[in-house]
From TrEMBL:
This is M20/M25/M40 family metallo-hydrolase. InterPro entries: Cyt/Met_Dipeptidase, Peptidase_M20, Peptidase_M20_dimer. Keywords: Hydrolase, Metal-binding, Protease. Residues 188-345 form the Peptidase M20 dimerisation domain. GO terms for biological process: proteolysis. GO terms for molecular function: metal ion binding; peptidase activity.
């Protein structure tokens, strides 16, 4: 298979370029149906039995290659939608015209997620052309709403449990470790996103004429926010916030200490060179500890010069990253209770949530995937218990009730969601090899 992948490198790249040129911006409903139809056709050309399935939003592209109804079944998940992109945003080449520079493919969706999705498909094509059949059943579920928060994914999975029934879910999304080492990720933090707003008057008032008379809504929100978090150690002070947090075991903490970590490099990548942490602290905070974060604060006048007013309204947007054991609904209720107790009259709006998810590292299927990735890349992967970010991984572990692994193929500086998003040509080709190794290893 290695030889055939090398021989077909240009052919596989052109297949990827065809998909990349087709816009599929879910937030703006641009090119979604056209992309889903194109993807279905590509899958059918490979020999995958594929079809579109409607949802309350954008369609799912579903496909399968069934060796035998009772055989081991791998479900490959990905998404065909992308973030918006305009040349004026700072792109060095048209964002929907794939361009190779210095060994990288620059295009919106190159890394997130069309490049990684196509690597899975080209792996199946390679395997079928060499061996004429797969050693396991493989199902594919590609959604068109991931970049819009996957609002219909959980309902779709719940309604199609029998169709999606499998033994393991395999996802390739996101970047390799910042060292360039391959990764196997076994979970994600969940998320709760809210907006708090406070209005104290019908309009802005003169800060002298009405000072000490009309209350300031920005001050009220600032005082409320200060009541939510300890200023010394950052611990969240909302009652019951940590009730169900699962602390890492000593074995898990020992694993964190062995993960690759360069404090100076981590600081540079964050633009925060004052960072001073050891590996265990860094990874524990990212993977095992929840957060409470202010994403944005809006109130009053922030233009040039001065404007002496008491603003009428203030708004803050917040997200909380949640770890295994926490439930977004439970945390939302506790947040609302805290707001009602400390700042009656402040309105709380629920803007979105996602449950945390975790697959144990000692699971035998996880060990097989780790071995396959090591074989493909010829070096042991970094095994991360969880990502700091959030993906809808819980639909597999909690709704389907199966283990789930994330094996990213894209380079660590893929610039997903940013201008000049890219994937290395070798990253794409190595992704094809990796998927072949995973299918082969599980089959054996």
């Amino acid at each position: 298979m290695e030889k055939l992948i090398d021989e077909r490198r240009e052919i596989y790249l052109e297949q990827l370029f065809t998909l990349l040129r087709q816009k599929s911006i879910s937030a703006q409903n641009i090119g979604i149906l056209e992309t889903a139809t194109m993807l279905r056709g590509m899958m059918e050309d490979i020999g995958i039995n594929a079809r579109l399935i409607e949802t309350d939003g954008h369609p799912v592209v579903y496909g399968e290659v069934i060796r035998h109804p009772g055989a081991f079944t791998l479900l490959i998940y990905g998404h065909y939608d992308v973030q918006p992109a305009e040349l004026a945003d700072g792109w060095n080449s048209p964002p929907f015209e794939p361009t190779i520079r210095d060994g990288r493919i620059y295009c919106r969706g190159a890394g997130d997620n069309k490049g990684q999705l196509m690597a899975q498909l080209m792996a199946v094509k390679t395997y079928l052309d060499v061996r004429h059949s797969l050693p396991i059943n493989v199902k594919f579920m590609f959604e068109g709403e991931e970049e819009s928060g996957s609002p219909n994914l959980a309902v779709f999975v719940e309604q199609h449990k029998e169709l999606l029934a499998c033994d393991l879910v395999y996802t390739s999304d996101g970047p390799l470790h910042e060292t360039g080492l391959p990764m196997v990720v076994l979970g994600v933090r969940g998320m709760l996103y809210v907006e708090l707003s406070c209005q104290t008057s019908k309009w802005d008032n003169h800060s002298g004429n009405k000072g000490n008379i009309v209350p300031n809504p920005a001050m009220r929100l600032i005082q409320l926010l200060a009541s939510m978090r300890d200023g010394e150690d950052g611990r969240v002070l909302i009652d019951g916030f940590y009730d169900n947090v699962q602390e890492p075991t000593e074995a898990e903490r020992a694993h964190l200490r062995q993960l690759p970590y360069d404090n100076a490099q981590a600081g540079r990548q964050a633009g925060y060179e004052e960072l001073d942490m050891d590996a265990e602290t860094y990874y524990r905070r990212l993977m095992y500890e929840p957060t409470l974060n202010i994403c944005g604060f809006s109130s009053g006048y922030s233009g040039e010069g001065s404007k002496t007013i008491i603003p009428a309204k203030a708004t803050v947007k917040m997200d909380m990253r949640l770890v295994a054991g926490q439930d977004p609904d439970d945390i939302y209720q506790k947040l609302c209770a805290h707001v009602a107790r400390h700042a009656p009259g402040v309105e709380v709006r629920h803007l979105g949530d996602m449950k945390p998810s975790r697959t144990p590292v000692h699971h035998p299927l996880v060990q097989q995937v780790i071995a396959a990735v090591e074989s493909a890349y010829r070096q042991p992967p970094v095994v991360a218990p969880a990502l700091g970010g959030s993906l809808p991984d819980y639909v597999w572990t909690q709704i389907l009730g199966v283990p789930s692994v994330l094996v990213p193929y894209a380079n660590s500086d893929e610039a997903n969601h940013s201008p000049n998003e890219n994937i290395g040509v070798e990253n794409f080709v190595n992704g094809i090899r990796c998927a072949c190794h995973v299918i082969d290893r599980i089959g054996r």
